Amino acid sequence: MSGARDGTRVNPTDDRTPVPGPTALNSAATEATRMGKRLFVSVDLDGRDEKVAAVQERFEGAAGLTFTDPAQAHVTLKFLGDTDPDRLDPLREALANAVVDAGVDPFTVEFGGLGVFPSLEYISVVWLGTRTGGDELTALHEAVEERTTALEFDPEDHEFTPHVTLARMEHAGGKEQVQRTVENEDPDVGDLRVEEVRLKESHLGSAGPTYETVERFPLDG
User: Fold this and answer.
1) Comparing C-alpha atoms, which of 133, 116, 155, 105 is closest to residue 45?
2) CA angle, corner 44, sides to 105 and 217, nearest 5?
3) Dist. CA 110–CA 28, nearest whole Å
4) Mean pLDDT of the chain
5) Cis-peptide, bond into residue 162, ω within 30° of zero
6) Pairing state of beta strands 9-10 and 74-83?
7) Residues 36, 87: Cα–Cα separation, whole Å
8) Are the C-beta atoms of residues 142 and 34 closer than 8 Å to each other?
9) Cβ atoms of 187 and 112 closer than 8 Å
10) CA distances (Å), origin 158, targets 9, 161, 175
């Protein structure tokens, strides 16, 4: 599912790399340490932080919005959650096989357009969409989903929508401003050449999450 040109595309789902509120971060970090590595699978928007930040600026002043770090912008293919270290080796093998299963050569994604989850009436996530490359991202997601659920990671319970999370809405104070921006603006971020999928670890801290690359899985071609 690609294309967000009308700026109002919505989907009844939530973002799968959630960021806890500031009051929960320290306790969440402690819990994550006990549980193992907090992992997800992504395509990263390397070198696009200034363009992503420029899109976020369109929402400046909207009460209740918490923006993501544009330097860490990514498309989540699969959120894995807390993962015991002894599962890493079979997970690496599964992801390497998933990239082969998807049959996707290096490709180009054009990012543009805006959307929200779950709806314009109840906004929890504001996101940047894709104009092209959505089919390839979906194929990668489906292959990763099949291989990881075979390892007993939790299956997704919603339809996959390729997107980059721009902000999360903590309260509805700025809802009308967000609605106007999503409905009336149609930003472009440009093209990204996708040549690999990454396994990422999320580290929770008082200043927010930071993401570390655990493994890279090159696409064929």
Assistant:
1) 133
2) 45
3) 35
4) 89
5) no
6) unpaired
7) 10
8) no
9) yes
10) 15, 9, 24
Two tokens at 203?
A: 């580290």
Q: How many residues does the chain have?
A: 221
Q: How far is CA 200 from CA 63, 86, 105, 125, in A?
A: 30, 16, 21, 21
Closest residue by Cα to residue 172 from 129, 208, 119:
119
- On whether the CB atoms of residues 122 and 77 are closer than 8 A, the answer is no
**Amino acid in position 9:** R
Q: Chain centroid to CA 50: how far?
A: 18
Query: How far apart are the C-alpha atoms of 10 and 33, rounded to whole Å?
Result: 35
Q: Give the global pTM.
A: 0.85
Q: What are phi and psi of 45, to 5 degrees?
A: -95, 65
Distance of alpha carbon 178 from the chain centroid = 20
Residue 85 has pLDDT above 90, yes or no: yes
Identify the band that residue 214 occupies on the pLDDT scale cut at 50, 70 and 90: very high
Distance CA 80, CA 66 (A): 23
Structural domains of the chain in order of their starting residue, each with its CATH number: 9-218 (3.90.1140.10)
pLDDT single digits (tens) 108-132: 999 999 999 999 999 999 999 999 9
> In which residue are the tokens 């990668």 written?
140
